[in-house]
Amino acid sequence: MNSMDPDPANTPDLEPGGGVAPGSTPPESAQTSGLSAPEPRTSRHFPPTGVAAVVVAVLLVAVFVAAAVGVVLAM
What we know:
It is a single chain. By secondary structure, the protein is an all-alpha fold. Helix content is about 35%, strand content about 0%. The longest helix is centred in the last third of the chain and has 27 residues, at about 50-75. It is elongated and about 85 Å long.
């Protein structure tokens, strides 16, 4: 892609005030949106590390609840 000169005096078909003449196509400009590379395909199953994290979280909650119940019953 060529580097465009931003000087309005050097831009073809640019009218005074910055408009473009009817029927003219504005100069090509750089595009900054879109993907630069294809995205990898995501899997449709839950990863094993996610399953392990959920199991650990459930165990921690169970231990916390058991400790809280033990403290309440000891009063």
